[in-house]
Amino acid sequence: MNEHETLGARLAQQGISRRAFLKFCAAMTTMMALPPGAATAIAETLLKAKRPSVIWLSFQECTGCTESLTRSHSPTLESLIFDMISLDYHHTLQAASGFGAEKSREDAMKDFFGNYLLLVDGSIPLNEGGVYSTIAGRTNLDLLQEAAKGAAAIVAVGSCASFGGLPMANPNPTGAVAVSDIVKDKPIINISGCPPIPAVITGVLAHYLTFGELPALDELGRPQAFYGETIHDRCYRRPFYDQGKFAKTFDDEGARNGWCLYELGCKGPTTHNACATTKWNGGAGFPIEAGHGCLGCSEPNFWDAGSFYTPLAAPTANIAAVAGAAALIGAGAAVALSAADRAKKKKKQQAHEKLSVKDLGN
Amino acid sequence: MNLPNNNLNSIPIRIEDVAEYSIGNLRALLAEIAAHLEKLARDGATASIDLHSLPFASGEYEQLRLLLGQGEVAASIEAIGPSEINETRYPGVWWVTHYNVEGDIVADSIEITLIPEILKSQPEDISTGLELLRAQLNGEVQS
Amino acid sequence: MNPQELLHWLRGTGLQLAAAVFVLGMTYRMLHLALLGRKKNLAAARGAEWGPGLRTVWRRSFVMPELSARGKFTVIAGYTFHLGFFVTLFFLSQHIDMLRAVFGFGWTALPRSAIDIAAILSLAALIALLVHRYIDPVKRMLSGFEDYLSWLLTFLPLLTGFMLLRGIGFDYTMLLILHLLSVELLMVAAPFTKLAHMFSTFSARWYNGAVAGFKGVKA
Questions:
Q1: Tens of pLDDT along B83-93?
Q2: Nearest to C23 among A269, A300, A323 (CB)
Q3: Which ipTM score applies to this complex?
Q4: What is the pLDDT of residues B69-115, one digit of tens each?
Q5: Residue A151 and residue A189: Cα distance in Å, rounded?
Q6: Contact pairs from chain A to chain B, CB under 8 Å
Q7: Are B60 and B21 in contact (CB under 8 A)?
Q8: What is the dihedral of CA B122, B125, B131, B135, to 10 degrees?
Q9: I need a labelling partner for C144 at 20 to 30 A (CA). Which of A152, A208, B86, C204 fits?
Q10: How many C-beta atoms lie closer than 10 Å to residue A88's C-beta?
């Protein structure tokens, strides 16, 4: 099995009409944030596309990313797995276990060398030779380096794989790093978020399938179609920010009126993600709609970037203490130097010498 | 896996008085629709607005439905889940909503066109249908 | 270092460093000024020092008619800039958030439109003052590198702050980084340049008033 059939052939076998497929493409177009008119062109390409082999490796992670994906509403995971890609290894989702499971990974790596898509969730621990996370007796680092060799591209799913995420948070006991810290010679796409929006994961896969390449990325390696704008840019509460109307607590009049959550620590202005438009749970809403500010989970180091409830305008460190200490030191220095000046002055006066400003500790 | 209560639509939601709630996102959208409609009337240019990518305050989506209203045509498609295609009160402005089999909206757009593409019969489907029809005819002749 | 890390540094360690330099430098300079000591005036005092000194601190906040006649433009533009700067610094809600986080108390913000007007007037006044400084032969002759540097250090926080509020030019993260950088530069430079007048102007006024008061004269 070293060639997958085309999607068109598979759809025809299943008796799915062209109109149904067009509808499916319309769903993907809206998901990928492409111009609405692109659906027909996407349909043409997809019908001819070969289903790529996908290997999914899970490292230091909480399975939240997989949970997110299995709640993906469009297309459903079933259709994603069976119709769009050939998911050859995913140790949480697959039925096989033990040697059988590892064999399917090895087979896929051999049969589709150079062509398979490698999905990674979780960060990779490096301390103590990487012993903090192992699968079948092998370290994550070892598995990643081996699988990366034959991958056409790597998709880092979630903030841990993209930027190190929670395992990398201070003091980073396991020495966790991101995929991009280890693999340097393959195209890597970061789908950050804790977890990432399911539609974004499937949207990127759909894009790869449609265009045969990764979508346009931002400077942090994230697909621009989804991370091009901030939560703040697309927030329905934005008009309140512009008017300077802010909720001061989570239960005041402003909060009840749906005013901007900036002063309650919302990180929407500095967070790039599609939550405000794609939304969660089948379009039910996103955190700000539920009355809580954005945590900034799709940005690097979000866990160490100060309190979730500190406004962006406020400092993340203790300024008053530092300023107080500085004032004491400044005052001490002034008193000491003034005393020295006076002594100098007195000495010069007694010796009947001239004293200029330059002689003083200015 | 469709439990009776896991469908969002089955949860009774009271919509607040919409007029009270608008914070101005809708005006811009209506102006955009009007501009597209003018182009359709003038040179037949079609356009489409993806509602998925637009920010809506709670109630604004429902308000948009009220504002655009229901026109003369209401069509439905059954293909991997239902789809609703409605012409709004303004001829040439269509509201196209696709659902998946679980009943979640997978695509939602306003199309400014004479007839939405998805309503037309597709050439591939026509040929497949024609084959079936021929087969049926042949079968009938033979029997 | 990615933009998020830079922003975090600027909101934390960077701001701590800037605040330390600013407070240390200002405390030292002001206290050193006070402790310089004045020669004992042996003449009999004809009036008090403290009262007239404080009165002068207050009174010099208003335009003196004889000055306004001479340099109407400088006075009007100067006051406009200082007032606008003061209003944006102390009455923008985001700045009050910051002050509340540092000092533990805050006050009511002015509406966004008022801040916008203050910021625009302040920026316009600064630009006009720079142009005038360059065109006017006397001012130009008197101006050195430090004057232009001080102007730039004052102008940048206002400009980046305005761009940040309106979302002009870059995305929010980048604008916030630029704004914080410019503010921290200003804080670091202030004690060691003419910008130290933000405090020393009051002691200078007091001194003027006190000297005059001692002689029984109105300053």
A1: 999 999 999 99
A2: A323
A3: 0.84
A4: 999 999 999 887 889 999 999 999 999 998 877 777 878 999 999 99
A5: 13
A6: 105
A7: yes
A8: -120
A9: C204
A10: 20
Determine whether the interchain pair B121/A19 forms a contact, defined as Cβ–Cβ distance below 8 Å. Answer: yes
Residues 6+ apart with CB under 8 A from A64: A158, A194, A195
Residue at token pair 């009455």: C91
Sign of CA dihedral C29, A342, A335, C211: negative
C115: which chain A residues are within 8 Å (Cβ-Cβ)? 244
* Residue A27 contacts B, CB cutoff 8 Å: yes
**Nearest-neighbour CA in chain C from A361: distance (Å):** 9
Cis omega (within 30 of 0) for bond into A75 = yes
B51 DSSP β-pair partners: none
How far is it, in rounded angstroms, from Cα A227 to Cα C3? 15
Instruction: Write the class of the CATH domain C3-29+48-214.
Output: mainly alpha
DSSP code string of A250-314: TTSHHHHTT-B-GGGT--GGG-B-SHHHH-BTTTTB-GGGGT-----TTSTTGGGSS-TTS-TTS
Nearest CB among A18, A36, A277 relative to B55 is that of A277
CB atoms within 10 A of CB A258: 19
Helix axes A140-149, A98-111, angle to 10 degrees: 30
Contact A65/A165 with Cβ under 8 angstroms? no
CA distance, residue A194 to nearest chain B CA (Å): 21
Strands A124-125 and A176-177, by their bridges, are antiparallel
What string of pLDDT tens digits covers the 362 residues of chain A? Answer: 445 677 777 777 777 788 888 887 887 787 777 776 777 788 888 777 777 889 999 999 999 998 888 766 554 544 544 567 788 888 888 888 888 889 989 999 999 999 999 999 999 999 999 999 999 899 999 999 999 999 999 999 999 999 999 999 999 999 999 999 999 999 999 999 999 988 788 788 878 877 778 889 999 999 998 999 999 998 999 989 988 899 999 999 999 999 999 999 999 999 999 998 888 876 778 999 999 999 999 999 999 888 899 999 999 999 999 999 999 999 999 999 888 888 888 888 888 877 776 766 55
β-pairing verdict for A151-157 and A116-121: parallel
3-state secondary structure A97-109: CHHHHHHHHHHHH
Q: Dihedral through CA C120, CA C122, CA C128, CA C134, nearest 10?
A: -130
CB contact (8 A) between residue A317 and residue C12 = yes
What's the CATH fold of domain B8-142? Ribosomal Protein S8; Chain: A, domain 1 (3.30.1370)
**Which of A47-62 are b and which e, b meaning 16 or more Cβ less than 10 Å from the residue's Cβ?**
bebebbbbbbbbbbbb
What are the structural domain ranges in chain B? 8-142
Q: Which residue is associated with the tokens 């179609």?
A: A225
Residue B14 has pLDDT above 80, yes or no: no
Could you tell me the domains of chain A?
A: 51-225 (3.40.50.700), 238-304 (4.10.480.10), 320-359 (no CATH)
Residue A217 DSSP symbol: B
